[in-house]
Amino acid sequence: MNLDNALLASSEDKLLYLQKLLVLEDDLLVKEFFAELSEVEVAHLLASFPANVRQRVWLCVPDDFKGEVLAKLSEETRSSLMVDMKESDVSELTQDLGAQEIADILDTTAESMKEAVIEGLDQNTRDQIQTLHAYDDQAVGRYMNPEMVNIRQNVTLETVQRYIRIKDLLDEASQEIMVTNQDNRLVGSLRLVDLIKQNQEALVSEFMHSPISILDEINIHEAAVILRSKGLHFAPVVNASGILVGQLNIEDIIGITREDSEQTQMTMSGVSEDELFSPVMKSAQSRGIWLGINLATAFLAAYVIGQFEAVISQLVALAVLMPVVASMGGIAGSQTLSIIMRGLALGQIAGKNRLWLFNKELWVGASNGVIWAIVVGIVSQVWFNDWMLTLVISLAIAINMTVANVSGIAIPLLLKKMKIDPALSGAVILTTVTDVVGFMSFLGLATLLILD
Amino acid sequence: MNLDNALLASSEDKLLYLQKLLVLEDDLLVKEFFAELSEVEVAHLLASFPANVRQRVWLCVPDDFKGEVLAKLSEETRSSLMVDMKESDVSELTQDLGAQEIADILDTTAESMKEAVIEGLDQNTRDQIQTLHAYDDQAVGRYMNPEMVNIRQNVTLETVQRYIRIKDLLDEASQEIMVTNQDNRLVGSLRLVDLIKQNQEALVSEFMHSPISILDEINIHEAAVILRSKGLHFAPVVNASGILVGQLNIEDIIGITREDSEQTQMTMSGVSEDELFSPVMKSAQSRGIWLGINLATAFLAAYVIGQFEAVISQLVALAVLMPVVASMGGIAGSQTLSIIMRGLALGQIAGKNRLWLFNKELWVGASNGVIWAIVVGIVSQVWFNDWMLTLVISLAIAINMTVANVSGIAIPLLLKKMKIDPALSGAVILTTVTDVVGFMSFLGLATLLILD
Lengths: 452, 452
Hints:
Two copies of one chain form a homodimer.
Chain A (H helix, E strand, L loop, with lengths): L10 H14 L2 H9 L3 H8 L4 H9 L3 H10 L2 H8 L4 H8 L4 H9 L3 H9 L3 H12 L5 H4 L6 E2 L5 H11 L8 E5 L5 E6 H6 L6 H4 L6 E2 L4 H10 L5 E4 L5 E5 L1 H18 L12 H27 L2 H6 L2 H29 L7 H32 L2 H31 L4 H28 L3
Parallel strand pairs in A: 1-2, 4-5
Antiparallel strand pairs in A: 2-3, 5-6
Helix pairs in contact in A: 1-2, 3-5, 5-8, 7-9, 8-10, 15-16, 17-22, 19-20, 19-21, 19-22, 20-21, 21-22
């Protein structure tokens, strides 16, 4: 058993290797393995076990890693590990961490422990944590790094370099140095690249640039969208009076971006992000709401079918073909929905182009509707040899697919106008529409054209 | 009409503002507006128009922007703009671009134009482009930046700084400087932060670190997964003999990451990423395959129902409740599928934990199945007042939801074992299973218990 190159192995290989080590019950080997990995990787491995095994794995994490690893875990995984921790444990773990990381960890703990741990910190970190905790959960200020290096604009680059060396400033993640005036107001930002490559006798003011600053009170997801749309990987954070209060680094922005795109995907099927290894009862419960909502819409569709019992009992083939109509509408609508949701997320749908898109979807729906109506018609005719039935199902397919495409754009745009997140309810409303319209058009036409 | 702060406006606001400017037909205003934006933003705005309007907007892009903007567009959007371009236009646009960007743009052009444009470039860029084009479409080598700064390990930091200034090396995106030996083999990497903050008399060898290098031939998506799993934002690229050939920057890695997560979402509904503003016929066609596959599965479900015509014609209520069984199974299965797909993407599912997860999903499915069977049973009893029907639907719901959850994990794991991308076909296979099992258990039980 061997992992030839721990550095380049895939997450899956590392997980398999760790599982083998755990079977051997030789904790020393596990510790050695962890020592070769980064904190991100160890955190990721911990999240790949059910809670009871996770506790055991946690004991093998090297002590000088534990704090960083804990900070990188999701809230659910972290709290599963912190259940039995004492105040002194938490204090020890957090002693070498930055304010941002400590604040994250303390968010998972009880109020009493939180206060006790904060008490034990140095004044500077304590102030920073208090600043972070003062912000709203979703505010930029809660996510920013409150530690940063700032300089004045009327000094030379050489002086800045010397200052950094003497004071031992900057860390691995540093990208830019903020330039402020006496009031701590942001006046510019100096890239490390420029600090190195420009004439060292020149003043900071000559090479600093005006960065795009982000207001500390705005929503972190909005901030991520703005930064992403500009291709920016760094932003100073200022408060309403223009005072520099922190910075957002590439790490923070990437984290939020990934979270956002995953969350959309998960939200659309009504499951939570962290559910893979959570206990049965918790999972069953968390999926319940979505199942309940779906049941209500399914009964609505059933109610529609119930209105047409007469025609179904006369021609059972209707019951046989019924799901085809609903299903084709459902797929066509969800294709449009996916495209529109992406466009909305990227801010590409606004003003006049909505009409263009509406029109486009109407025509895509109608042309696909006609094409597939013909295909379904042929199959139906061959199968049941009933021209009336073929006419009814062809018409219903064409109608439902057209309505489905138009709904695929109309529903998310309407929800957005009503300030409801389309990711949350768009799909279920759409399915309800395509089911109801599908059954109603199919069975309704059948009642008109076939029922004696 | 005014956009108070072009810098901080959302993508949507910028799009609205641009639409207004276009109505005024004052191209100068549009040009002024574009000049305030970054290339990423202009590219994004261009992608937010249908092809015919896009051409007009393109004419307003400031000339010194055009090349960069073109490089940042997706292939489809780019080719819509390049249709009428002459060789001289392309040569002019690409003159100030890096090899990576030129290679991207030339990928969109015809072979003859490609050669002519390459002919006009300087020897160095020409070589770099040839290197890039020699790689497979999906290889790391095709995505890397072949321009990089490399230094030797036995010089002082001070010398490195001076060398950078004299030669005017590094650009905005630089993060690390590669350290190589005489054979151009990678021996380490020096962070800009260390170049600044460490003792300037020290040698590079003292502060360089061993970076994780990526092989040029591996798949870019695999590379992105590795880098992400380590939280890395930079990687040197080496060939099979260890020679340094390029570097992957944060930009490249983020781009690939976002693409991947979006693509999964789009693939799952059978639409392509760039479809928002593509013409009706193209969209209708591209969605066709998926609709066709779905139709086949819908007919399979219809065939199953067709086997039970006898019992349906005896009790039409079965046709009414039938979709409820299929729909509950579909939702339960897709919940499991989303969770498993995410776990697979993150490499969290391997070896022994598959059994644990299987077991978990079985129990989540069974317990949710029983709970919802009771709920559906109550509604059915109130609605139809038929104990036998209530028994049949309750059993069918419990069976289908249990099978659905188990299938939600079994299908993607099986597909993966068969080396088929579960994102592509997982959802459609799952729906087929839940439909078929749903109809079969419901109507089959009805045949056994109700049919005279």
